[in-house]
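Quick one, C-alpha cells below. Sequence please?
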C-alpha cells in the first residue's frame, strides 16, 4: 500500500470510530433522558395517587357523617337513586 492509501485508511478508521463514539454517546444520553422522564412520571403518579387516596378518605368520612346526621334524607336519596337507575336500566320494547 502506498503512503497516501495508508493515510486515507487511517483517516477513515478514525472517522468511523469517532462516528461510532458520537452515536454511542448520543444513545447513552437518550437512554439517560428517557430514564429521567420515566422517573419523573412515576413520582407524579405516586403523588397523584396519594392525593386522590386522601381525598377519597375525606369524602367517605364526610358521607358517613352526613348519613349519621340525616338518616332519613340518606334513605330517601338512596331510594330515589335506585328508582332512577331502575328506570334507566329497564328495556323498552
Amino acid at each position: 500500500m502506498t503512503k497516501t492509501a495508508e493515510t486515507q485508511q487511517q483517516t477513515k478508521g478514525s472517522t468511523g470510530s469517532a462516528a461510532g463514539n458520537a452515536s454511542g454517546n448520543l444513545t447513552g444520553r437518550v437512554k439517560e433522558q428517557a430514564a429521567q422522564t420515566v422517573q419523573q412520571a412515576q413520582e407524579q403518579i405516586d403523588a397523584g395517587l396519594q392525593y386522590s387516596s386522601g381525598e377519597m378518605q375525606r369524602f367517605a368520612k364526610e358521607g358517613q357523617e352526613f348519613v349519621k346526621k340525616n338518616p332519613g334524607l340518606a334513605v330517601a336519596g338512596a331510594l330515589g337513586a335506585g328508582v332512577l337507575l331502575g328506570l334507566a336500566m329497564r328495556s323498552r320494547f
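Helices lie at 3-69, 71-89. DSSP finds two helices and no strands in the chain.
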